[in-house]
Design a protein that fits this description.
The chain is mainly α. The protein is built from 5 helices and no strands. The longest helix has about 40 residues, at about 90-130. The N and C termini lie far apart (about 45 Å).
């Protein structure tokens, strides 16, 4: 299927809307129940796989490997943390979510998703502390809403950004910023 067609844009939008519904369900459920149900992680993964097949078939194997790599890394991190601290620090639902999300973003953008989610969670905790809430080592935080929001933000930004071949993006000439280069 040729890329860049109106059909592709419509499919991409449909996939993003469907993903948005799943992400909203993840955020609400995790905020209320402190867990991410397998059904939503599976939906995110299946939507990501369908999107790859329909729109980006050349990336299919790479994205599968990315999902396996980041999922394995987070499982290892989860295990090490539990061994060292005697408690779970990262829920299994979060691990599955990140692996499913990597099918959408690839490994490089998944690092941005995790960074944005972590920063948003820190801001949330800072705000909680400012309004007099108790924040300490034992504070439990549902991370799913932050992961879901960050994933959606990264994907929407990517979809709204000009294509890779577009000369307007990224701006590479420092003079475009009013900077002079000696």
């Amino acid at each position: 299927m040729p890329t860049g067609t109106a059909l592709d844009a419509g499919l991409e939008t449909a996939f993003l809307v469907a993903l948005g519904v799943a992400l909203l369900a993840v955020a609400v459920t995790d905020a209320r129940e402190r867990r991410i149900p397998d059904v939503w992680n599976l939906a995110i993964a299946l939507l990501g796989l369908a999107r790859l097949i329909a729109l980006h078939p050349a990336q299919f194997v790479d994205r599968l490997l990315d999902a396996a790599a980041i999922g394995s890394l987070l499982l290892l991190l989860r295990w090490v943390y539990r061994r060292m601290r005697g408690r779970v620090g990262l829920g299994l639902g979060d691990v599955k979510f990140v692996a499913a999300a990597a099918l959408w973003t690839g490994l490089s953008d998944m690092t941005l998703v995790i960074l944005l989610a972590s920063l948003a969670a820190l801001v949330w905790l800072g705000g909680l502390r400012l309004v007099g809430g108790s924040v300490g080592r034992g504070t439990r935080l549902a991370f799913g809403p932050f992961l879901a929001g960050a994933l959606f933000a990264v994907l929407v930004f990517d979809a709204a950004s000009p294509a890779a071949g577009d000369e307007a993006w990224p701006i590479e000439d420092p003079a475009d910023f009013g900077l002079s280069v000696p």
